[in-house]
Specification:
alpha+beta, elongated
Length: 400
C-alpha cells in the first residue's frame, strides 16, 4: 500500500470509532489550550507592565534605600528596605542645589490606610508625594487642584484622590472641599486625579495622595522611603545617575542606596516575567505529556480491540511495516487534530480573558504547542504501532 492509501485507511478507522477518537484527543486539546492560555497571560502581563513603566518617561530615575543589583549575572544582595531608609529632606536639597542635570526631585512615601466619609470606609494606598507629582507621573487633576508648595511646606492635611475612592466614598456627590478621614485624621479633599486604570490587576485609581511632609507625621516616620528624580532629558540619564550617586555618597554609604532608571527596572521586570512565562508554559506542557500518555493508552486498547482486523489485513498481504505506519499515522492525526482544536480554544480563551485582564497570544507559543502535540503523537504512537505490527496473523484471526 502506498502512503496516501495508508492515510485514507487511518482516517476511515478513526471515523468509524468517533467516540474513542474524541476521548483520545481530549488530553491533547487541554494541554495545547493550557500552554497558549498561560503563556498569553504571562506575555500580556509583561507587555502591560512594560508599557506602564514607559509611561513614567525615559527621563525618570528612582532612588531606593539599600543595595539593589539586577545585573545579568544575578549578583547583588537585597536592599535594606524602606524600614532602614536614611533619606531626608536635606538630601533632596543637596540634589536640587548641586546636580546640573536634575529637573525635579520628589520625596515618595507609601502606606495603607482606612479612608472614611459619612460612615463609609475603604482601605486603600496612601502616597506621600511632592507638588511635582503630576509632572513626574504625567497624571493631572480633572477636578479641583493639586496641593500647593505652601501647603506642602506647612504639612497641611489636604488630599488628592483617585476616581475609585470617589466612587466608593462619595458616589455622585462632589468630593471637592469635603472632609476625608485617613486613619482617624481629618483631611480636606482638594482634587480628583485623572483615571489610570489597572496595572497587573491592581487598581491604580484606588489611591489617595497627600503631601510627603504630612505623610511623615501621619505615619510617624523619621525618614523618606524613596526619591523620584526627573532628569532634564532621556539623553542625560547616565549623567544624572552619576551625579545622584556622587552627591549622596557624601552623607551615605554605597550600600545604603541604589539608583535605578526606568530602563533598568523595565529590563529587570521583563527578565522576571520572561522566566515566569516560560515556567508557566513548561507547567502547561506537562499536561501535553499526560495527553500523550492518554493517546498511547487508548491506542493500545485500540490494538487489542482491532486484533482480528489486523490479522485479516496481514492475511491478505499487509506487511508489518504497513501496520506500523498505519497506527503511527492514526496517532499523529489525532495529535494534529487535538493540537488544532486546542490552538483555536486557546486563542478564543485568551480573547475572552482579555476582556478582564491583559493577554497577548505569542505566535511562538502556538508553534511550540502545535509542534509538541505532533511530537507527542509520534513518540507515544510508536509503542501501540509496534505492538500491532508484531501480531501473529494466525493468532490474530483466532482472537475473540
Amino acid at each position: 500500500m502506498d502512503f496516501l492509501e495508508l492515510i485514507k485507511v487511518s482516517l476511515d478507522a478513526l471515523r468509524i470509532n468517533k467516540t474513542r477518537s474524541g476521548l483520545t484527543i481530549l488530553g491533547i486539546v487541554i494541554g495545547v489550550m493550557s500552554v497558549i492560555l498561560l503563556i498569553s497571560i504571562g506575555s500580556g502581563l509583561q507587555t502591560y507592565i512594560t508599557e506602564q513603566l514607559e509611561g513614567l518617561g525615559g527621563d525618570s530615575l528612582f532612588v531606593f534605600p539599600g543595595e539593589l543589583s539586577f545585573g545579568t549575572d544575578g549578583g547583588g544582595t537585597p536592599g535594606a528596605g524602606v524600614a532602614n531608609s536614611k533619606f531626608t529632606f536635606d538630601h533632596i536639597k543637596d540634589l536640587e542645589r548641586e546636580a546640573k542635570t536634575i529637573k525635579t526631585v520628589m520625596a515618595y512615601i507609601e502606606n495603607n490606610g482606612t479612608m472614611g466619609y459619612k460612615g463609609k470606609t475603604t482601605v486603600t494606598q496612601v502616597s506621600g508625594v511632592g507638588v511635582e507629582y503630576s509632572d513626574v507621573r504625567d497624571q493631572y487633576v480633572t477636578e479641583g487642584s493639586f496641593f500647593s508648595q505652601s501647603q506642602y511646606n506647612s504639612a497641611k492635611k489636604v488630599a488628592v484622590i483617585g476616581t475609585t475612592v470617589v466612587e466608593d466614598l462619595y458616589g455622585q456627590e462632589d468630593p471637592i472641599g469635603k472632609k476625608l478621614t485617613i486613619s482617624d485624621q481629618t483631611y480636606i479633599v482638594l482634587g480628583v486625579l485623572e483615571e489610570k486604570g489597572a496595572l497587573g490587576g491592581v487598581d491604580m485609581d484606588n489611591q489617595v495622595f497627600i503631601p510627603a511632609t504630612t505623610a511623615m507625621r501621619q505615619f510617624d516616620m523619621e525618614n523618606i522611603q524613596s526619591l523620584w528624580v526627573q532628569s532634564i532629558s532621556s539623553e542625560t540619564i547616565p549623567e544624572t545617575k552619576a551625579e545622584i550617586e556622587k552627591i549622596l555618597l557624601k552623607t551615605l554609604d554605597e550600600d545604603e542606596f541604589s539608583v535605578l532608571d526606568t530602563k533598568s527596572i523595565s529590563g529587570m521586570i521583563s527578565n522576571i516575567l520572561g522566566i515566569l512565562t516560560a515556567a508557566l508554559g513548561g507547567i502547561a506542557a506537562i499536561s501535553l505529556v499526560v495527553g500523550g500518555i492518554g493517546v498511547m493508552n487508548i491506542m493500545l486498547v485500540s490494538v487489542t480491540e482491532r486484533t482480528r482486523e489486523i490479522g485479516l489485513r496481514k492475511a491478505v498481504g499487509a506487511t508489518p511495516k504497513a501496520i506500523l505506519i498505519q497506527f503511527i499515522i492514526e496517532a499523529v492525526i489525532l495529535s494534529f487534530f487535538g493540537g488544532a482544536i486546542g490552538i483555536l480554544l486557546g486563542i478564543l480563551g485568551s480573547l475572552a480573558i482579555g476582556q478582564f485582564f491583559t493577554t497577548t497570544v505569542a505566535p511562538w507559543s502556538i508553534i511550540l504547542a502545535f509542534c509538541v502535540s505532533a511530537f507527542v503523537g509520534i513518540v507515544f504512537g510508536v509503542a501501540p504501532a509496534a505492538k500491532a505490527s508484531k501480531l501473529n496473523p494466525i493468532e490474530a484471526l483466532r482472537y475473540e
